[in-house]
Amino acid sequence: LHSFPTRRSSDLGATIMTTQAIPYIVLLGFMYGSTLIASRFSVGQYEPLTYIGLRLTMAAAAHIIIYTVSRQRHWPKDRWLWIHAIVLGVIGTAIPMSGMVMSLQYLSSGITSILITIGPAITVLFAHFFLDDERLTWRTSIGIGLALAGAVLLALRGETGLADSSGSWIGYMLVFFPMVIGSGSTIYARK
User: Fold this and answer.
1) Closest by Cα among 191, 101, 114 to 151
2) Confidence at residue 149, expressed as pLDDT on a 0 to 100 scale
3) pLDDT of residue 6
4) Within 13 Å, how many C-alpha atoms sit on residue 8's CB side?
5) Are 48 and 104 contacting, i.e. CB atoms less than 8 angstroms apart?
6) CB under 8 Å to 144, separation ≥6 — which residues?
7) Please, which residues have CB within 8 angstroms of residue 107's CB and are 6 or more apart in sequence?
8) Where are the alpha helices (DSSP H) in the chain?
9) In sequence order, which residues have a C-beta less than 8 Å from that of residue 134 and are 6 or more positions away?
């Protein structure tokens, strides 16, 4: 045991946490990416808002069934909790999801998924301004700058990822504005 180099416990914890998170990050990336591909296909079959309505209805039904069957959970009775949940459902889920799916009429699922990756950067930027305990460091500032620069580069090039598409700026706006609203909902939830 004495031959191993000593580490501070915080360094070891960070290493373990990073290693343990990798499978979850890969799974989340796979699920999110495959959802965009399925959404891209579905936009060809349904109107985008119809498709979103179907997805949200199925998700709500599944949630209600699971919540009702669970013996450990009871429906909340706090009026303000329901109001906050409705606000978050609309600005944190319905609007961003609708914008992303509608953008697939103008952008490929690959370009859309690349643009979505700036969402966390926007959230970190909002947190700096709206949350007292979240301040930007030089590292996070560089990360935000790189994320936004990549999105700006794609937008300036007019890249859509589709062979025959015009009006790509509409697709970019349908990704960007809902992402800003979704990031705002994260700050709202934290407050």
Assistant:
1) 114
2) 85
3) 47
4) 3
5) yes
6) 121, 124, 125, 136
7) 115, 160, 161, 162, 165, 168, 171, 172, 175
8) 9-43, 48-69, 79-88, 95-103, 109-116, 119-130, 138-157, 168-190
9) 124, 127, 128
- Three-class DSSP category at 47: coil
Residue 165 one-letter amino acid: S
Pull the structure tokens for residue 14.
């960070």
Q: Please, which pLDDT band fits residue 2 given cuts at 50, 70 and 90?
A: very low
Tokens of 34: 């495959």
The type of residue at 51 is Y
Prediction pTM value:
0.73
pLDDT tens-digit readout, 70-115: 878 778 889 999 999 999 999 999 999 999 899 888 888 778 877 8
Closest CA to 104 of 49, 29, 148: 49
Contact indicator for 186, 121 with CB cutoff of 8 Å: no
Question: b/e per residue, 119-131, with b = 16+ CB within 10 A?
Answer: bebbbbbbbeeee
The amino acid at 149: A
